[in-house]
């Protein structure tokens, strides 16, 4: 990557930096051309060197702290669901500080908070002026990127049928009965059928783009026997031709560096460890099938959060960070 002169000292803090998403954020931000000061907060790992917890960051000289830098221009909150709201209640952070939250606490917009739901490809203008940003859920990201071009074109009228599989890191860093190796290895299972929490995000954005859409959104999530990544297949009925659908998707993402459209078969290894989303389009009789693949920890979490930060602070335009996936 070509070096870019830093515009000023940019301070960033990560709250809950010892988890999976926190580790990915550290890896991205410590080499970000605009971030010169990185503060890492962790209740459980305070005082430890980063490499003691995130072994892939073996060359990092950073340490976890019990507190965070109140002077940070941007704060990433990587605590578990339900923990961001109490954290913000306890810590009165300046309204001028940009907060990017990874939890589900503020993804559903209402008059009780000022967080903006942020899917970069579709809400760039809102993100540019927001100081409170709710990062999309990982499943929701994969689904919405696959659905929204059809919706915007007025072609989404029938029920949606979605099947998605995620890796074990989608369940977070804390150990549980369904995340340890002996259970997960050589095993696949269903969970939260028709009732996954990310459905609420999807329905919210569908309503924002097309208030008249009243059909069902059916989602069957699955746990996969792999570590990271999401592969989702979405189909619905439409009278549009394959050529029309392809043109719609190509135009929708022509200027988006991290979302690519293809006719070729896709698989998880193409997107793991990247901030990319691959969308494969097929037409079968009166049905369109869209397959979506992302890395749940990057495009579905930390990578998308950095993408949102780049949009909010204008780094896309100044540094070209929107042009090279390896430098997002």
Key structural traits:
seven-stranded parallel sheet; 10 helices; Rossmann fold; 328 residues
CATH architecture of the largest domain: 2-Layer Sandwich
- Which structural class is indicated by helix and strand composition? alpha/beta
Strand order of the largest sheet: 3-2-1-4-5-7-6
> What's the SSE pattern?
EHEHEEHEEHEHEHEHEEHEEEHH
Largest sheet properties: 7 strands, parallel
CATH topology of the largest domain: Dihydrodipicolinate Reductase, domain 2
Question: Rough shape?
Answer: globular
Number of domains: 2
Q: In DSSP terms, counting alpha (H) and pi (I) runs of 4 or more, how many helices?
A: 10
Provide an overview of this structure.
The protein is of the alpha/beta class and 328 residues long. The protein folds into two domains: 11-136 and 301-327, NAD(P)-binding Rossmann-like Domain (Rossmann fold); 138-294, Dihydrodipicolinate Reductase, domain 2 (2-Layer Sandwich). It has helices spanning 20-29, 50-53, 84-90, 120-128, 138-152, 181-184, 198-209, 242-252, 302-312, 315-319; strands at residues 11-15, 37-41, 64-65, 74-77, 98-101, 116-118, 132-135, 160-166, 189-190, 217-223, 230-237, 259-262, 277-284, 287-294. Helix 1 crosses helix 9 (302-312), helix 4 (120-128) packs across helix 9 and helix 5 runs parallel beside helix 7. Residues 1-6 and 323-328 have low confidence and may be disordered.
